[in-house]
């Protein structure tokens, strides 16, 4: 591996000829020849497309408001002579607007700044955590520093409430008439991983949302289990993607709670949009169970319109392949959508054995929808489903409010970017942290603040 010099010596570059040893190796050639790749559109069996369905566009649309959440992060080095010392800065945004404003906007021959301002009703959430070779004051380790940083972020009061209140409401199912009494944490964060579970009892929670244990304080935010994958020497860069997806979805839950508490009948008029699939990944995957319980409760008691929008990955690549192939007739025509089964996923999208593998079993609370809209958008969506078995052989009845969701997603077309919709594009524009100049300026900010 090459390396760059920090002084006036030349950089150590990788050699330019060593690839020939790989290309000429018979073991490597044999390995590549024995790999399976995703199939092209002309390889798809017609019998596997019987699940194609047509969008019913002639239905009553109850949606009046759109709320979309997006977020991002960037990492920066704090000290020039210690580039291993790093912070991560996160920014999340929730965009809310009235769908009537969007409809009116689409009919105007010219769009003025004051018109766009109606769609910029944004609330920002900011977070910073140490990820390598940095310890927060009064904390003894990187693990405890990150635990405390996440805890403080959730405890921050915003509009007379906090994300921590929402987390308690979410974990212990306080939205229902029969909240649960306890939640099992796989391991005590103050002990080594694998030393046994720790039970969080609802009636034992302290006023500051902590729990007492003989080995030390346990935060309610420890339910995310991030402490299990933090390495004191190599850092915690691996948790950043997990944490981003987690907070994005819990911000949506936060607004659901506020609406449910203040005017719960409004839930029937909101479409909630998450950037990315409705799932939790890595160590946070256990959150998919309480999220499924919340969705099922709202669908039965009030109603819920929730969707995740994917912009990249194998499902998006497959969607383009079947809806807009390089040559030949598309498998998925305009106005059609497909609910890919477990067999379909492992046969055409992600190579695997569908008879022994269950896609999304331990992380998804939703099912996939591949949609080719009437106006040509090619979208991959996820919509809540009642249980994990709905993914194996999906039925339309398992995807509550699907036609209404697709109808509104189609209305939110964004011509600026591929595979996105207006609210997500707006949220991304308003909270994303670019390498230039955002990363450079944040690095200067962190360095100057640290040195004070």
What is the β-strand count?
A: 15
Report Rg: 24 Å
Helix content: 25-40%
Overall shape: globular
H/I helix tally: 13
What is the spatial order of strands in the main beta sheet?
1-13-14-15-12-11-2-3-4
InterPro entries: NurA_domain (IPR018977)
Domain NurA: 66-254
Protein name: NurA domain-containing protein
Organism: Flexistipes sinusarabici (strain ATCC 49648 / DSM 4947 / MAS 10)
Task: Describe, in plain words, how this protein is organized in 3D.
This protein is an alpha+beta fold and 452 residues long. Among the domains are: 143-234, no CATH class; 310-420, no CATH class. Helices cover 31% and strands 20% of the residues. It is built from 13 helices and 15 strands. It has helices spanning 19-23, 26-33, 99-106, 113-117, 142-155, 163-171, 240-263, 288-301, 314-323, 342-349, 402-411, 422-431, 435-450; strands spanning 52-54, 65-79, 82-98, 121-132, 157-158, 161-162, 182-185, 198-201, 210-211, 218-219, 270-275, 306-310, 336-338, 366-372, 378-384. The chain has a nine-stranded mixed sheet, with helices on both faces. Strand 2 (65-79) and strand 3 (82-98) form a beta hairpin. Helix 6 (163-171) packs across helix 7. The two termini are 37 Å apart. Mean pLDDT is 83; it is low at 108-112 and 433-439. Residues 66-254 form the NurA domain. InterPro entries: NurA_domain. This is NurA domain-containing protein.
């Amino acid at each position: 591996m090459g390396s760059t010099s920090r002084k006036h010596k030349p950089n150590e570059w990788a050699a330019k000829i060593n690839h020939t040893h790989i290309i000429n190796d018979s073991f490597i050639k044999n390995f590549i020849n024995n790999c399976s790749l995703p199939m092209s559109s002309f390889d798809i069996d017609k019998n596997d497309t019987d699940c194609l369905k047509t969008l019913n566009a002639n239905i009553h649309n109850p949606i009046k408001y759109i709320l979309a959440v997006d977020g991002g992060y960037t990492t920066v080095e704090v000290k020039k002579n210690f580039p291993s010392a790093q912070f991560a800065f996160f920014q999340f945004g929730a965009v809310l607007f009235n769908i009537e404003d969007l409809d009116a906007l689409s009919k105007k021959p010219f769009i003025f700044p004051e018109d766009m301002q109606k769609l910029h009703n944004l609330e920002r959430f900011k977070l910073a955590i140490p990820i390598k070779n940095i310890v927060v004051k009064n904390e003894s380790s990187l693990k405890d520093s990150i635990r405390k940083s996440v805890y403080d972020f959730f405890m921050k009061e915003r509009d007379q409430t906090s994300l921590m209140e929402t987390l308690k409401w979410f974990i212990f199912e306080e939205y229902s008439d029969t909240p649960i009494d306890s939640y099992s944490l796989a391991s005590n964060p103050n002990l080594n991983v694998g030393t046994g579970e720790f039970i969080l009892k609802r009636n034992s929670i302290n006023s500051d949302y902590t729990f007492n244990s003989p080995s030390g304080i346990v935060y309610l935010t420890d339910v995310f289990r991030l402490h299990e994958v933090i390495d004191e020497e190599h850092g915690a860069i691996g948790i950043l993607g997990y944490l981003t997806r987690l907070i994005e979805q819990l911000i949506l839950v936060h607004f659901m709670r506020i609406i449910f508490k203040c005017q719960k009948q409004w839930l029937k008029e909101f479409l909630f949009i998450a950037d990315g699939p409705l799932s939790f990944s890595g160590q946070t995957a256990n959150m998919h169970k309480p999220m499924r319980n919340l969705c099922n409760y709202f669908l039965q008691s009030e109603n819920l319109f929730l969707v995740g929008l994917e912009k990249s990955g194998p499902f998006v690549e497959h969607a383009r392949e079947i809806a807009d192939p390089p040559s030949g007739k598309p498998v998925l025509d305009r106005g059609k959508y497909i609910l890919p089964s477990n067999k379909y996923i492992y046969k055409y999208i992600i190579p695997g054995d569908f008879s022994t593998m269950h896609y999304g079993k331990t992380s998804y609370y939703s099912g996939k929808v591949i949609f080719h809209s009437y106006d040509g958008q090619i979208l991959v969506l996820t919509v809540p489903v009642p249980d994990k078995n709905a993914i194996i052989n999906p039925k339309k009845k398992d995807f509550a409010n699907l036609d209404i969701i697709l109808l509104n997603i189609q209305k939110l077309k964004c011509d600026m970017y591929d595979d996105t919709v207006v609210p997500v594009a707006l949220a991304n524009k308003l909270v994303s942290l670019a390498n230039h100049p955002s990363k450079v300026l944040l690095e200067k900010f962190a360095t100057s603040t640290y040195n004070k």
